[in-house]
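Human:
Take a look at this sequence-structure pair and walk me through the tokens.
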Amino acid sequence: MTLLTAAIIDAVSTDADALRRNYKLFAAGQQGIGIAEGDLKVTTSGGMVSVIAAGSAQINGTQNTTTQGAYGVANDASISQTHSASDPTNPRNDLVGIKIEDAFYSGSNKQATAVIVTGTPAASPADPASPANFLPLARVRVNAGASTLGTITDLRPRLGSPYHAEVYRNAALSIANGFAFVTIAYDSLETSGDPNGNFNTGTGVYTCPLSGLYRVTAYALFSAGGTGTIGLSISKNGGTDSKRIGAGYNTANIGTSGSGKIRCASGDTLAVQVAQSTASNPAALFTGSTFLWATFELVGP
């Protein structure tokens, strides 16, 4: 076994590979853009040309997941690339991104290059496999027989804590009278989404990836009111009303919001619950990202 030291121990020379490991450590193993919203955004200038905007990012090495670190890249001007001609029968998905080549791990090149990974035409095309050390920036649909690019889907990940989820519910929801707490099964992710994949949009449950302190924030608005109260609560590990974070009463449209911190171990689950005892039975909730939403985030050890 060899224990690899950090470059800061070496006061004479800089171990580039050790510095890259530190970059990866400081970013908690993430890769992505992290400075400006428009960094490395992919658009089209017409025809079969995609354009990568100027900007900066960090890209993880994937050839050796144990020792290979992360690479900082900066693009100082737009880069235009031409996609291969469309298939006459089926559409395909191309991936646009940046690839690192590091001779320390393979080959002879030491460079960052903009690349198009061309997909395979199919009736329902899948994304092509990514090369090593690759940061995906966008999925570009090349439709059958087309001479211009189709939909460009932004795939740029963003640096920052990956341990969070911003969610809401679109489907209709009604809560029975009697002040019995019911878990809200949020069914949709906001654009910033759930980068570590810890939220279940079928059950509305967030699984904690690490031990630490988590903050849960939520809002709920009932569409009918009357004499009575409503409550908003955090549920931990399937419990009922584990930590109350909100209440409301006696208004035409009863809304409640709140935020609370709760300590969890890795693998614990969190959810948001609501209860009501108003004149309406059942009472309907307004839905959508404005009126029925929640966030889950790791905020400390």
